[in-house]
């Protein structure tokens, strides 16, 4: 199975999710959601950068599954995720993200960027605001 996305926690508390360009299948999409859930295992604050630069539009059933996953994990995401940045240079993929959010809102602040540098700066500002003085 070729992965739909690779979840990288090497820079934790910043998690990077890189979409590979592979089409979504039930198997690789379920693996992506399972990998995403593992980011919360230690119950520490995180931020997530979703790099959809290479993403292909997932099946409608997978879009709905992603929305359902968010609703199922709403409290966990809200408690442990500071914010999510999306790198989406493709207008069609941006439209899909908006569709997913129409099924289910986001429980944390989010913003869409066209490159990783802008996303990282935004995430760093969120993390700085989160730290006690």
Annotation keywords:
single chain, 133 residues, alpha/beta, Transcription Regulator spoIIAA, 5 strands, globular
Main sheet summary: 5 strands, mixed
Determine the mean pLDDT.
91
Number of strands: 5
Q: Strand fraction band?
A: 15-25%
Principal-axis shape equals: globular
Give the low-pLDDT segments.
none
- Per the CATH scheme, the topology name is Transcription Regulator spoIIAA
Q: What is the distance, rounded to the nearest whole angstrom, between the alpha carbons of the first and last residues? A: 46 Å
Spatial extent as radius of gyration: 14 Å
**Helix/sheet category:** alpha/beta
Range of helix content: 40-55%
The name of the CATH architecture is 2-Layer Sandwich
CATH class annotation? Alpha Beta
Task: Name the helix and strand elements from N-terminus to C-terminus, one letter apiece.
Answer: EEHEHHEHEH
> Strand order across the biggest sheet?
1-2-3-4-5
Number of domains: 1
What count of helical segments does DSSP give? 5
Report on this structure.
- Helix 2 packs across helix 4.
- The chain has 133 residues and is an alpha/beta fold.
- It has helices at 26-38, 60-72, 74-80, 91-103, 116-130, and strands at 5-8, 14-19, 46-51, 81-87, 110-113.
- Helix content is 46%, strand content 20%.
- It contains 5 helices and 5 strands, in the order E-E-H-E-H-H-E-H-E-H.
- It has one domain: 2-Layer Sandwich (Transcription Regulator spoIIAA).
- It has a 5-stranded mixed sheet with strand order 1-2-3-4-5, with helices on both faces.
- Strand 1 (5-8) and strand 2 (14-19) form a beta hairpin.
């Amino acid at each position: 199975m070729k992965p739909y996305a690779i979840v990288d926690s090497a820079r934790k508390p910043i998690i990077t999710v890189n979409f590979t360009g592979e089409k979504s299948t039930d198997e690789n999409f379920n693996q992506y959601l399972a990998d995403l859930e593992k980011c919360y295992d230690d119950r520490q604050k995180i931020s997530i950068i979703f790099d959809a630069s290479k993403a292909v539009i997932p099946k409608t059933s997978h879009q709905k599954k992603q929305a359902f996953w968010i609703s199922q994990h709403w409290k966990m995401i809200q408690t442990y995720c500071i914010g999510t940045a999306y790198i989406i240079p493709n207008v069609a993929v941006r439209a899909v993200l908006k569709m997913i959010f129409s099924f289910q809102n986001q429980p944390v602040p989010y913003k869409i960027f066209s490159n990783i540098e802008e996303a990282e700066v935004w995430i760093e500002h969120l993390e700085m605001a989160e730290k006690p003085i």
